[in-house]
Specification:
elongated, 10 helices, 6-stranded mixed beta sheet, 2 domains, alpha/beta, Rossmann fold, 373 residues
Length: 373
Amino acid sequence: MAYSKPYRLISILMLVAVFILSSPLVSIAGEELAVKLKSKVQLNQETQNKLIGASRELITKNFSADFARGIGSRAETNVLRQTAKGYVAETIVLNLLKNTYTAEMSRLEFSLEAGKTKLLNIKRNYRPSFAETMKAVAADAKLQNEKQKLNIFKAGKVPDDPRQFKTDALIKEAEAAEAREAHHSWWNARGLANTGASGVPSAVAMTNNIHAVMYHRFGGYAAKRIGAASTEAEITDFLKNDTYLLAWNNIGHGVTSTSGSPCYGLVQWGGTMWYNEIAAISPPRGLYHSVSLTNSCNSFKNPLNAAIWSRGPRTYIGGNINLPIGRSETAAYHFWYRTLLLKWPMATALNKAQQDLGFPMGTFGLRGWGGAF
């Protein structure tokens, strides 16, 4: 039987509608909301799927309006206890905002008993308590001396203005060099530039620029991780095992709030580096005696600040405010350019970087050594 074109079009549209209505639960951005599940109680796959499904349903019902202000979301569900009829769990929900590197944190507590889901508690702008101080890693004079020997200036003459530095050829050269290497993730990189925010053009652009600066300074010994390559496990691997690491720059959302609350972690691709996990990195061969900058909202505030500092970096720099997307990353690039290639004292380079981008002094905080790199 032959159909007319209008009839075929209507049939196609009806099929599309049926497909959409039968699709899995989706987030506001149109992608299935990824929910990580953690449990100290052993669970079979069916129970895991039910808990994840219950969590997704509650998140969508309670946070769809919030997600409209963001560019993405993350969720982690943790089983708190087993009951006679099922389980009680919590879900930590992160909403990654569009205009600043702020990941708002909320908490849901719910029960899944006898096949029924019940919301027990909901807290927006969740701020869990934390210890102000954390146990510091033991001093390692041998590792410190080895890193000092690696800190050799190899870069030639460069422009005084970072905006005049030609990065395109360096970026291509660095990418080709890293692609040729057959190495473990961290190999012998002296610099690491990473961002999990591959959907933010300025984060990607400045990560490329910062990596080019590191590559130029360290004679090719620099690593870059962007998007799906910048996972919690991958970056933690660098901070734990790369005994050559001298400089680290992270661009991405910090787990905090728009009101300037504490910062609890750094969002990576598909997961979060929580402050307590950073404080537990042992031994922190990469982070120890490094210069580390996190371009994230409120990342200079505790508990994240205390966690990173407890791992023994030489210098730590982080955001003191809700850093805007589009400008703050360039300030980080200017800092590294003047620090690594012009050999300015780090405190001076940071002040000038803030001035360049129209930020007041103190937008970024510096802890530790502020002299020459």
